[in-house]
Amino acid sequence: MKRLIAVVSVLALVLGSCTSGERASTVVDGGLLEEVRARGELVCGVSGTTVGFSERQADGSYAGFDVDYCRAVAAAVLGDADAVMFVPLASSERFGAVRSGQVDVLFRNTTVTQSRDTGEGVDFGPVVFYDGQQFMARAADGYTESSTVADLAGAVVCVNANSTTELNLIDAAAEAGVQVTVRSLEGRDLVVEDFVSGACDVMTTDGSGLVGRRSTQQPEGQQWVIFPSTPISKEPLAPAYAHGDPQFGDVIDWVVYATIIADEKGVTRANVESVAVDPPDVEVARLLGLEGELQTAMGLAPDAFYQVIKQVGNYSDIFDRHLAPVGLSRQGTVNASWLDGGLIYAPPAR
Hints:
Blueprint: H1 2-17, H2 31-39, E1 42-46, E2 49-50, E3 54-56, E4 62-63, H3 65-78, E5 84-88, H4 94-100, E6 105-106, H5 114-119, E7 122-124, E8 129-131, E9 133-138, E10 156-160, H6 164-176, E11 181-185, H7 188-197, E12 202-206, H8 207-217, E13 224-227, E14 235-237, E15 240-242, H9 246-265, H10 272-277, H11 282-287, H12 294-297, H13 304-311, H14 315-322
Parallel strand pairs: 1-5, 1-6, 10-11, 10-12
Antiparallel strand pairs: 2-3, 3-4, 7-15, 8-14, 9-12, 9-13
Helix pairs in contact: 3-9, 3-13
Protein backbone atom coordinates (compact mmCIF):
# COMPACT_ATOMS: atom_id res chain seq x y z
CA MET A 1 0.00 0.00 0.00
CA LYS A 2 2.84 2.38 0.81
CA ARG A 3 4.34 1.69 -2.60
CA LEU A 4 0.99 2.38 -4.29
CA ILE A 5 0.65 5.69 -2.45
CA ALA A 6 4.17 6.65 -3.51
CA VAL A 7 3.43 5.89 -7.14
CA VAL A 8 0.21 7.91 -7.02
CA SER A 9 2.06 10.81 -5.39
CA VAL A 10 4.73 10.82 -8.08
CA LEU A 11 2.06 10.71 -10.78
CA ALA A 12 0.29 13.66 -9.20
CA LEU A 13 3.52 15.63 -9.17
CA VAL A 14 4.16 14.85 -12.83
CA LEU A 15 0.66 15.87 -13.86
CA GLY A 16 0.82 18.97 -11.71
CA SER A 17 4.05 20.05 -13.37
CA CYS A 18 2.25 20.42 -16.71
CA THR A 19 0.85 23.93 -16.82
CA SER A 20 -2.81 24.17 -17.73
CA GLY A 21 -2.00 25.77 -21.08
CA GLU A 22 0.51 23.16 -22.24
CA ARG A 23 -0.02 19.71 -23.71
CA ALA A 24 1.36 16.76 -21.80
CA SER A 25 4.18 14.96 -23.56
CA THR A 26 2.03 11.89 -24.23
CA VAL A 27 -0.59 11.46 -26.93
CA VAL A 28 -4.08 11.79 -25.46
CA ASP A 29 -7.49 11.08 -27.05
CA GLY A 30 -6.12 10.28 -30.49
CA GLY A 31 -3.54 13.03 -30.50
CA LEU A 32 -3.33 16.26 -32.41
CA LEU A 33 -4.28 14.73 -35.75
CA GLU A 34 -7.75 13.89 -34.45
CA GLU A 35 -7.97 17.23 -32.66
CA VAL A 36 -7.33 19.10 -35.92
CA ARG A 37 -9.91 16.96 -37.70
CA ALA A 38 -12.50 17.59 -35.02
CA ARG A 39 -11.80 21.32 -35.16
CA GLY A 40 -11.94 21.35 -38.95
CA GLU A 41 -9.04 23.77 -39.16
CA LEU A 42 -5.25 23.71 -38.88
CA VAL A 43 -3.70 26.45 -36.75
CA CYS A 44 -0.32 27.35 -38.22
CA GLY A 45 2.29 29.70 -36.78
CA VAL A 46 4.07 31.96 -39.27
CA SER A 47 6.17 35.11 -39.30
CA GLY A 48 3.83 37.26 -41.33
CA THR A 49 6.61 39.72 -42.18
CA THR A 50 9.15 37.64 -44.11
CA VAL A 51 9.21 38.48 -47.81
CA GLY A 52 8.60 35.41 -49.94
CA PHE A 53 7.97 33.15 -46.95
CA SER A 54 4.95 34.60 -45.15
CA GLU A 55 3.40 38.01 -45.62
CA ARG A 56 0.02 39.37 -44.69
CA GLN A 57 -1.81 40.68 -47.73
CA ALA A 58 -4.01 43.77 -48.00
CA ASP A 59 -7.15 41.64 -47.70
CA GLY A 60 -5.91 40.02 -44.47
CA SER A 61 -4.90 36.73 -46.06
CA TYR A 62 -1.37 35.30 -45.96
CA ALA A 63 0.90 34.26 -48.81
CA GLY A 64 4.36 32.77 -49.12
CA PHE A 65 6.50 29.64 -49.15
CA ASP A 66 5.88 28.83 -45.48
CA VAL A 67 2.21 29.68 -45.86
CA ASP A 68 1.86 27.16 -48.68
CA TYR A 69 3.39 24.45 -46.52
CA CYS A 70 0.75 25.19 -43.88
CA ARG A 71 -1.83 24.85 -46.63
CA ALA A 72 -0.25 21.58 -47.77
CA VAL A 73 -0.70 20.09 -44.29
CA ALA A 74 -4.33 21.20 -44.26
CA ALA A 75 -4.86 19.60 -47.67
CA ALA A 76 -3.44 16.31 -46.40
CA VAL A 77 -5.28 16.25 -43.07
CA LEU A 78 -8.57 17.95 -43.94
CA GLY A 79 -8.75 17.70 -47.71
CA ASP A 80 -8.94 21.49 -47.91
CA ALA A 81 -5.83 23.65 -48.28
CA ASP A 82 -7.80 26.71 -47.25
CA ALA A 83 -8.80 25.29 -43.86
CA VAL A 84 -5.99 27.10 -42.06
CA MET A 85 -5.92 29.80 -39.41
CA PHE A 86 -2.61 31.66 -39.55
CA VAL A 87 -1.10 33.04 -36.36
CA PRO A 88 1.73 35.59 -36.78
CA LEU A 89 4.40 35.06 -34.12
CA ALA A 90 7.47 37.00 -33.04
CA SER A 91 10.73 35.08 -32.66
CA SER A 92 10.38 35.15 -28.88
CA GLU A 93 6.86 33.69 -29.04
CA ARG A 94 7.19 30.86 -31.52
CA PHE A 95 8.32 27.89 -29.42
CA GLY A 96 6.04 28.73 -26.52
CA ALA A 97 3.14 28.85 -28.97
CA VAL A 98 3.91 25.31 -30.10
CA ARG A 99 4.39 23.95 -26.58
CA SER A 100 1.19 25.52 -25.25
CA GLY A 101 -0.93 24.35 -28.14
CA GLN A 102 -1.65 27.86 -29.39
CA VAL A 103 -0.55 26.59 -32.80
CA ASP A 104 -0.51 23.05 -34.18
CA VAL A 105 2.62 23.51 -36.25
CA LEU A 106 5.18 26.20 -36.93
CA PHE A 107 6.31 27.06 -40.45
CA ARG A 108 8.17 30.24 -39.58
CA ASN A 109 11.63 30.37 -41.21
CA THR A 110 12.99 28.73 -38.07
CA THR A 111 16.54 27.38 -37.85
CA VAL A 112 17.16 23.91 -36.45
CA THR A 113 19.89 23.96 -33.78
CA GLN A 114 21.00 21.44 -31.18
CA SER A 115 19.79 23.54 -28.25
CA ARG A 116 16.39 24.14 -29.82
CA ASP A 117 15.95 20.50 -30.79
CA THR A 118 16.83 19.25 -27.31
CA GLY A 119 15.71 22.04 -25.02
CA GLU A 120 12.60 23.75 -26.38
CA GLY A 121 10.09 20.92 -26.07
CA VAL A 122 9.59 20.80 -29.83
CA ASP A 123 10.59 18.48 -32.64
CA PHE A 124 11.70 19.60 -36.08
CA GLY A 125 10.60 18.24 -39.42
CA PRO A 126 12.57 18.05 -42.67
CA VAL A 127 14.53 21.09 -43.81
CA VAL A 128 12.48 22.98 -46.39
CA PHE A 129 15.06 25.67 -47.17
CA TYR A 130 18.81 25.82 -46.59
CA ASP A 131 19.78 29.37 -45.71
CA GLY A 132 22.77 31.20 -44.28
CA GLN A 133 23.32 34.50 -42.51
CA GLN A 134 24.69 37.48 -44.42
CA PHE A 135 24.78 41.26 -44.11
CA MET A 136 23.25 44.05 -46.17
CA ALA A 137 24.57 47.62 -46.34
CA ARG A 138 24.52 50.66 -48.60
CA ALA A 139 27.12 50.83 -51.37
CA ALA A 140 27.32 54.57 -50.73
CA ASP A 141 28.82 53.77 -47.32
CA GLY A 142 31.71 51.94 -48.95
CA TYR A 143 30.43 48.39 -48.72
CA THR A 144 30.64 45.97 -51.64
CA GLU A 145 29.73 42.35 -52.29
CA SER A 146 33.37 41.57 -51.45
CA SER A 147 33.10 43.09 -47.97
CA THR A 148 33.73 40.86 -44.96
CA VAL A 149 32.87 40.82 -41.28
CA ALA A 150 36.12 42.70 -40.62
CA ASP A 151 34.67 45.64 -42.55
CA LEU A 152 31.94 46.03 -39.94
CA ALA A 153 34.32 47.65 -37.44
CA GLY A 154 32.50 50.50 -35.71
CA ALA A 155 29.20 49.85 -37.50
CA VAL A 156 25.74 49.85 -35.96
CA VAL A 157 24.14 46.56 -36.98
CA CYS A 158 20.39 45.98 -36.75
CA VAL A 159 19.28 42.44 -35.99
CA ASN A 160 16.16 40.56 -35.00
CA ALA A 161 16.15 39.95 -31.24
CA ASN A 162 15.92 36.46 -29.75
CA SER A 163 17.24 34.79 -32.88
CA THR A 164 20.23 32.71 -33.93
CA THR A 165 21.06 35.71 -36.12
CA GLU A 166 21.80 37.86 -33.09
CA LEU A 167 24.05 35.22 -31.52
CA ASN A 168 25.86 34.58 -34.81
CA LEU A 169 26.55 38.31 -35.22
CA ILE A 170 28.14 38.53 -31.79
CA ASP A 171 30.25 35.42 -32.42
CA ALA A 172 31.36 36.54 -35.89
CA ALA A 173 32.39 40.02 -34.71
CA ALA A 174 34.40 38.52 -31.85
CA GLU A 175 36.13 36.05 -34.17
CA ALA A 176 37.00 38.86 -36.60
CA GLY A 177 38.30 41.01 -33.75
CA VAL A 178 36.00 43.95 -34.48
CA GLN A 179 33.63 45.93 -32.30
CA VAL A 180 30.11 46.58 -33.53
CA THR A 181 27.08 48.14 -31.91
CA VAL A 182 24.29 45.58 -31.90
CA ARG A 183 20.82 47.09 -32.23
CA SER A 184 18.34 44.31 -31.37
CA LEU A 185 14.75 44.81 -32.48
CA GLU A 186 11.68 42.63 -32.04
CA GLY A 187 10.51 41.97 -35.56
CA ARG A 188 11.92 42.04 -39.08
CA ASP A 189 9.88 45.07 -40.09
CA LEU A 190 11.50 47.16 -37.36
CA VAL A 191 14.95 45.99 -38.44
CA VAL A 192 14.31 47.10 -42.01
CA GLU A 193 12.70 50.38 -40.95
CA ASP A 194 15.75 51.31 -38.89
CA PHE A 195 18.08 50.33 -41.71
CA VAL A 196 16.14 52.41 -44.24
CA SER A 197 16.01 55.40 -41.88
CA GLY A 198 19.76 55.26 -41.27
CA ALA A 199 19.47 54.33 -37.59
CA CYS A 200 21.81 51.48 -38.38
CA ASP A 201 24.57 51.10 -40.95
CA VAL A 202 24.05 47.42 -41.63
CA MET A 203 21.29 44.87 -41.18
CA THR A 204 21.74 41.14 -40.90
CA THR A 205 19.49 38.11 -41.23
CA ASP A 206 19.21 35.02 -43.40
CA GLY A 207 20.39 35.65 -46.95
CA SER A 208 16.95 34.83 -48.35
CA GLY A 209 15.42 37.55 -46.18
CA LEU A 210 17.96 40.11 -47.37
CA VAL A 211 17.33 39.28 -51.02
CA GLY A 212 13.59 39.57 -50.47
CA ARG A 213 13.80 42.91 -48.68
CA ARG A 214 16.17 44.35 -51.27
CA SER A 215 13.84 43.35 -54.08
CA THR A 216 10.85 45.04 -52.47
CA GLN A 217 12.16 47.91 -50.33
CA GLN A 218 15.39 49.28 -51.78
CA PRO A 219 14.76 53.02 -52.32
CA GLU A 220 15.20 54.45 -55.78
CA GLY A 221 18.70 55.81 -56.21
CA GLN A 222 20.25 53.55 -53.57
CA GLN A 223 22.22 50.36 -54.03
CA TRP A 224 22.08 47.78 -51.27
CA VAL A 225 24.80 45.13 -51.31
CA ILE A 226 24.76 41.73 -49.65
CA PHE A 227 27.93 40.16 -48.27
CA PRO A 228 29.96 38.03 -47.70
CA SER A 229 29.45 35.63 -50.59
CA THR A 230 29.88 32.68 -48.22
CA PRO A 231 27.36 33.02 -45.36
CA ILE A 232 28.71 33.22 -41.81
CA SER A 233 26.39 30.47 -40.60
CA LYS A 234 24.25 27.50 -41.57
CA GLU A 235 20.54 28.20 -41.21
CA PRO A 236 18.54 25.06 -42.06
CA LEU A 237 14.90 26.15 -41.90
CA ALA A 238 12.32 23.55 -40.90
CA PRO A 239 8.83 23.17 -39.44
CA ALA A 240 8.44 22.58 -35.71
CA TYR A 241 5.74 20.75 -33.78
CA ALA A 242 5.19 19.72 -30.17
CA HIS A 243 7.30 16.91 -28.78
CA GLY A 244 5.48 13.73 -27.84
CA ASP A 245 3.00 13.20 -30.69
CA PRO A 246 4.81 11.00 -33.23
CA GLN A 247 1.74 10.46 -35.40
CA PHE A 248 1.27 14.17 -36.02
CA GLY A 249 5.01 14.59 -36.49
CA ASP A 250 4.97 11.89 -39.15
CA VAL A 251 2.19 13.72 -40.97
CA ILE A 252 4.16 16.97 -41.07
CA ASP A 253 7.34 15.18 -42.17
CA TRP A 254 5.68 13.23 -44.96
CA VAL A 255 3.71 16.17 -46.30
CA VAL A 256 7.07 17.87 -46.87
CA TYR A 257 8.58 14.68 -48.30
CA ALA A 258 5.59 14.24 -50.61
CA THR A 259 6.20 17.64 -52.22
CA ILE A 260 9.86 16.72 -52.74
CA ILE A 261 9.18 13.25 -54.17
CA ALA A 262 6.57 14.70 -56.52
CA ASP A 263 9.14 17.25 -57.65
CA GLU A 264 11.70 14.51 -58.31
CA LYS A 265 9.14 12.54 -60.31
CA GLY A 266 7.89 15.51 -62.32
CA VAL A 267 4.43 15.38 -60.77
CA THR A 268 3.17 18.95 -60.62
CA ARG A 269 0.05 20.82 -59.67
CA ALA A 270 -0.67 21.19 -63.37
CA ASN A 271 -0.37 17.52 -64.34
CA VAL A 272 -1.21 15.50 -61.21
CA GLU A 273 -4.72 14.63 -62.41
CA SER A 274 -3.46 13.07 -65.63
CA VAL A 275 -0.53 11.39 -63.87
CA ALA A 276 -2.95 9.76 -61.44
CA VAL A 277 -4.75 8.14 -64.37
CA ASP A 278 -1.57 6.44 -65.57
CA PRO A 279 1.27 6.64 -62.99
CA PRO A 280 4.78 6.33 -64.47
CA ASP A 281 6.00 4.02 -61.71
CA VAL A 282 4.95 2.28 -58.52
CA GLU A 283 6.37 4.96 -56.21
CA VAL A 284 4.18 7.62 -57.80
CA ALA A 285 1.21 5.26 -57.52
CA ARG A 286 1.92 4.81 -53.81
CA LEU A 287 2.44 8.55 -53.31
CA LEU A 288 -0.89 9.39 -54.90
CA GLY A 289 -2.71 6.71 -52.90
CA LEU A 290 -3.42 4.45 -55.85
CA GLU A 291 -1.54 1.47 -54.46
CA GLY A 292 -0.76 0.21 -50.97
CA GLU A 293 -1.76 1.63 -47.61
CA LEU A 294 1.04 4.06 -46.80
CA GLN A 295 -1.20 7.04 -46.12
CA THR A 296 -3.99 5.14 -44.36
CA ALA A 297 -1.41 3.56 -42.05
CA MET A 298 -0.53 7.11 -40.96
CA GLY A 299 -4.14 7.98 -40.23
CA LEU A 300 -4.66 9.93 -43.45
CA ALA A 301 -6.97 9.41 -46.40
CA PRO A 302 -5.45 7.36 -49.26
CA ASP A 303 -5.41 10.42 -51.52
CA ALA A 304 -3.94 12.79 -48.91
CA PHE A 305 -0.78 13.54 -50.86
CA TYR A 306 -2.69 13.71 -54.14
CA GLN A 307 -4.65 16.54 -52.54
CA VAL A 308 -1.41 18.21 -51.44
CA ILE A 309 -0.06 18.25 -54.99
CA LYS A 310 -3.38 19.12 -56.62
CA GLN A 311 -4.26 21.97 -54.27
CA VAL A 312 -0.81 23.36 -53.44
CA GLY A 313 1.84 21.78 -55.67
CA ASN A 314 5.23 20.12 -55.46
CA TYR A 315 8.39 21.68 -54.02
CA SER A 316 9.29 23.50 -57.25
CA ASP A 317 5.73 24.77 -57.67
CA ILE A 318 5.86 26.32 -54.20
CA PHE A 319 9.39 27.69 -54.61
CA ASP A 320 8.73 29.19 -58.03
CA ARG A 321 5.49 30.77 -56.90
CA HIS A 322 6.95 32.63 -53.93
CA LEU A 323 10.76 32.67 -53.80
CA ALA A 324 11.79 32.98 -57.44
CA PRO A 325 9.90 36.31 -57.87
CA VAL A 326 11.98 37.94 -55.10
CA GLY A 327 15.28 36.88 -56.67
CA LEU A 328 16.00 33.49 -55.10
CA SER A 329 17.06 30.59 -57.29
CA ARG A 330 17.41 26.84 -56.84
CA GLN A 331 19.80 26.31 -59.74
CA GLY A 332 23.37 25.81 -58.58
CA THR A 333 22.45 26.19 -54.90
CA VAL A 334 22.02 23.81 -51.98
CA ASN A 335 18.27 24.20 -52.44
CA ALA A 336 18.40 22.37 -55.75
CA SER A 337 17.17 18.80 -55.87
CA TRP A 338 19.75 16.14 -55.03
CA LEU A 339 19.34 15.08 -58.67
CA ASP A 340 20.83 18.47 -59.62
CA GLY A 341 23.58 18.55 -57.01
CA GLY A 342 21.60 20.14 -54.17
CA LEU A 343 20.49 18.99 -50.72
CA ILE A 344 16.72 18.78 -51.20
CA TYR A 345 16.07 15.08 -50.76
CA ALA A 346 13.34 12.78 -49.46
CA PRO A 347 13.23 9.15 -48.35
CA PRO A 348 11.35 6.85 -50.74
CA ALA A 349 7.60 6.33 -50.54
CA ARG A 350 7.48 2.57 -50.00
